[in-house]
Amino acid sequence: MNPINNNLYFIALILGLVHLSSSVELTFELLDNAKDCFFEFIEKNTTATLEFQVVTGGSYDVDVSLEAPNSEVIYRQLKAQFDSHTFVAPQTGEYAACFSNQFSTFSHKLVYMDFQVGDEPLLPGLGEHSTVMTQMESSAEKVHKSLVTIADYQTHHKLREAQGRKRAEDLNERVFWWSLLETIVILTVGFGQVCILKNFFSEKRPVQYTRIS
């Protein structure tokens, strides 16, 4: 294989990274007093990982449960902000990851979920031959793993940034309304004091009595 073909092969492998994913990532809104479940078909003895984080809403907590196809609960967390759970599927079937906000009567939650099933797939062409990988293929595989790690770091940093921004906005709103309330109270007290002092120094007219003959 000449150097030009090597370069084209390497570029094709890198571009193929965008289309490879063995996990389901999504961010959804969990309404107050609601429960949402997501289903994933998993083969027996397959390793899977469920990761979640509450981005915004209320006290940043939800109830999470993971159920096997026979309705057996294999993982449960109450009022959790974030967590990651790895398990091996005991049987083949649909596994349900449920998020509950039923304990909250007015707070909506924005929840991030990553449900990864199995190992990360190989790059196209690397598993199609039985010979030892070439230096170009080894480099492509290392770049692939590095890009996957970078993507995970970027996702978590974006979640932390969104959570911090939401908390800052909530704090700013609370400070605004508290400052507005204090301003109204100060103006009211000041106006009341002016009226009282004005009443003290105002000229009082004498009362005239009329004699009745």
Mean pLDDT across residues: 78
What's the helix-strand series?
A: HEEEEEEEEH
Task: Describe the strand arrangement of the main beta sheet, using strand numbers.
Answer: 1-8-3-6
Distance between the termini: 135 Å
The major pleated sheet works out as: 4 strands, antiparallel
Oligomer: single chain
Class from secondary-structure proportions: alpha+beta
Q: What is the general shape?
A: elongated
Question: What portion of the residues fall into strands of 2 or more residues?
Answer: 25-35%
Helix amount, in percent?
25-40%
Radius of gyration: 32 Å
Q: What is the number of beta strands?
A: 8
**Total helix count?**
2
Stretches where pLDDT is under 50 for at least 5 consecutive residues are 1-21
Describe this structure in words.
The chain has 213 residues and is an alpha+beta fold. 38% of the residues lie in helices and 30% in strands. The chain has helices at 3-15, 135-201; strands spanning 23-30, 35-42, 47-56, 62-67, 73-80, 82-88, 93-100, 109-117. The strands form two sheets. Strands 1-8-3-6 form a four-stranded antiparallel sheet. It has a four-stranded antiparallel sheet with strand order 2-7-4-5, with no helix packed on it. Helix 1 packs parallel to helix 2. The N and C termini lie far apart (135 Å). The model is unreliable at 1-21 (pLDDT under 50).
